[in-house]
Amino acid sequence: MKSFHGTLLLLACTLICGCAQTQELPQKQAHPNVILMMADDLANEDLSCYGSTRIETPHLDALAGQGLKLNSYYAGNPVCSPSRMALLSGSYPARLGWRWGVMGYGFPPKSGMSPKVYTVAEAFRDAGYRTAISGKWHLGRKNMSPEEQGFESAYYIYMSNNQGRDMYRDGELVQKKWDNRLLTETFTEEVIRVINEPGEDPFFLYVPWTAPHFPADPHPDWHGNSGEDKSGKYTDVVEELDYRVGQILEALDEAGKAENTIVIFTSDNGRQPGQSGPSDKPPFSGGKWQSLEGGTRVPCIVRYPDLLPEDKENNQIVAAIDLFPTLADACGVNIDLPEQSQKLDGVSTWANLRGLKSELARDELLFWHGKGRATAIRSGNWKLHFNYGAKPPEDPELTDGPALYNLKTDPMEKNNVADENPEKVDKLLARAKELLTDIYGNQVPLGTWPGVELEEQPIKASEVWGPWMK
Fold first, then answer.
1. Which is one Pfam family of this protein (predicted)?
2. Residue ranges of E strands in 145-215
């Protein structure tokens, strides 16, 4: 492991040598802490700062008022496990051997994210950070557990809260069948414990909440506040989550660490079909599992006092795969990928978020349905669906050819303008084919438990991209 003090010396030399080109950071911000929070199945219409009039989220609203609200942020996949793979690896999940579904439903038995994948936690650990997770893992057991993927302190459940709630600390079972109503509170208490740990080294803290993933079981202190039906219970769960975020922000203030901590709040995908929330009109079509905008276009709020704009909105495309290189850039962390690890698909958006660079860091993005088919590509404001996803739930039915939408004027993806723009369709088809050929041709296969071999061979791009890509 690299020493933190050695990293500081290297960073200091870099800043001195590069002061003619870049603005030198204040000393207190040279190596900031990071808290990366990710809700589970939370949609844009669930936060009042993103337009909800039926769910009150004052703490997240305040966080948005102190930082940047990203309006074109995309989760890594429309379902849980591959979305987490993307966030932690900086790569499209298909590049990491993902075929379809999630752990426990779709993944081969005794498999998960390969130990060969170099995670953001490993990069920060190797740079001298204290790394910790408090929340839902959902990426594998044994040699694929959090402890084996860069987290020095790990407090977690292995699966989704509907699949099992056995609680572990650093690989050891703490308690079987943790009360679902108390998970958000419990994970928050662990986050606050890590924040208050003594020591000079900065921390990287990953908080993958289980809320508001089904079943929506409100904490006793919230139960009934919004009614006893599904909608009321869902609202109570989200409003508790907002309160817990407020507790974490308050703990940062009390510890004197708020000014030197990058805080990110986002979600892993859109709302689960059948998960009944309040009936505010969604800004996008689709939800979890789908490659329509509502499947992956989710809230994302970023705060870093003094260096990021306050109370601003950013409309540039930013994806979960970008957070690894972006945070590394912001924190002076080197990404030294081992020889057999993954190729990064993410790019650093740090200069763009700070307003120091007008040229877009990202102008295109690929999409997959949760059942595994590559389905769409976005370039600028244009989004082309080149393959029918799956059902249920289904993406647009493509019977006569690809479907093209202008997201600037048609964010609900209702008005197919492919016939009026044949050259744009051909260009996007060619670009999608180029990207997918590279991704499926340069994969790190899924990992397996020791002694277990995958029976399935790596999938090929031509198996997932549909009939109109030749």
1. Sulfatase
2. 153-157, 167-169, 172-175, 203-208
